[in-house]
Every structure is written in structure tokens, then in C-alpha cells.
């Protein structure tokens, strides 16, 4: 077990990449919730996309998201997610039956999201320093 992340050391790690960021592609149409306030990010790893929205409410940032299989099959309910800063867990969540998750307290700065799926652990870098 990794001392900081708590993941079994024999888990396969997959790095996620950002495939959409509303701060970079603000005029793109057809993105779910693209007219709403907040920053929208989609990260992709292996056979999954993770749709993330972050916004500021009353001076603190929050994040909601959904882990979606790209093959259109089963949702990813019951998966563990961790928000990391400097390699340390700062908040954890579990996806519901349709793969949705919430982080209620998102700090400023460079973060990572870690998603523990059945046979892999996905890690993706996020930077919310400019998200409002």
C-alpha cells in the first residue's frame, strides 16, 4: 500500500489527459452544460472519460463530476476518487450508481484526481488556480 495515496502498490496506474477545458475552448458548442457558470474539464484515460465541473460558491470552490465508460456499457458506481495536492489526499468520494461524485472543498492550485477502478488506478493533473 502506498503511504500517501493508500493504493495497493501492485495496481496498474494509467495517466489521464485533458481532452477538453472550457478555459481553453470557451466557445465550443455541444458540450454538456456549456452555457453554465464554472469551468468544465473532460479527462480521458483507458476506456473512461471523466466530466468535471468546478465553480466558486460563497468564496469556496466545489467540484462535481461523472466517470463515464466510453464503450456505452455499465456506469462506474462505487469507484473511489481522491483529490490530491502535492501527493497528499485532501478529500475523497465514492461514485454513485451512475458514476457521479462530489468534492465540496476544492483548494486553489495544482491538484490531481485519482480514480480507483476495478483493475486500474487513473491519475490526472488538474489546475484550478484560475477557475471561478
What topology does this entry show?
Elements: E1 12-15, E2 17-21, E3 39-45, E4 48-57, E5 60-69, E6 80-85, E7 88-94, E8 100-106, E9 110-116, E10 120-127
Look at the structure and name the CATH superfamily of one domain.
Immunoglobulins
Radius of gyration: 14 Å
Using the coordinates shown, work out and report the CATH topology of one domain: Immunoglobulin-like
The low-pLDDT segments are 1-9
Structural class: mainly beta
What is the strand tally? 10
SSE pattern, N- to C-terminal: EEEEEEEEEE
Strand order of the largest sheet: 1-10-9-6-7
Q: Estimate the strand proportion.
A: over 45%
Main sheet: strands, sense, barrel: 5 strands, mixed
Tell me, briefly, the overall form. Answer: globular
Give the distance, in angstroms, between the N- and C-terminal Cα atoms.
36 Å
Mean pLDDT: 82
Under CATH at level 1, the class of one domain stands as Mainly Beta
Second CATH tier, the architecture of one domain:
Sandwich
Structure description:
The protein is 0% helix and 54% strand. Strand 6 and strand 7 form a beta hairpin. It contains no helices and ten strands. It is globular, with a radius of gyration of 14 Å. The chain is mainly β and 132 residues long. The strands form two sheets. It has a five-stranded mixed beta sheet with strand order 1-10-9-6-7, with no helix packed on it.
Which short descriptors sum up this protein?
single chain, 132 residues, mainly beta, Immunoglobulin-like, five-stranded mixed beta sheet, five-stranded antiparallel beta sheet, 0% helix, 54% strand, globular, disordered N terminus
Amino acid at each position: 500500500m502506498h503511504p500517501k495515496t493508500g493504493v495497493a502498490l501492485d495496481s496498474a496506474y494509467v495517466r489521464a489527459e485533458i481532452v477538453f477545458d472550457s478555459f481553453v475552448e470557451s466557445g465550443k458548442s455541444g458540450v454538456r452544460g456549456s452555457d453554465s457558470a464554472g469551468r468544465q474539464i473532460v479527462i480521458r484515460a483507458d476506456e473512461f472519460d471523466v466530466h468535471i465541473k468546478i465553480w466558486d460558491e460563497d468564496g469556496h470552490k466545489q467540484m462535481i463530476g461523472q466517470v463515464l465508460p466510453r464503450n456505452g456499457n455499465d456506469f462506474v458506481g462505487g469507484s473511489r476518487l481522491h483529490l490530491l495536492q502535492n501527493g497528499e489526499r485532501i478529500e475523497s468520494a465514492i461514485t454513485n450508481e451512475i458514476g457521479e461524485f462530489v468534492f465540496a472543498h476544492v483548494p486553489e492550485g495544482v491538484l490531481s484526481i485519482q480514480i480507483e477502478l476495478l483493475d486500474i488506478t487513473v491519475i490526472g493533473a488538474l489546475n484550478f488556480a484560475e477557475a471561478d
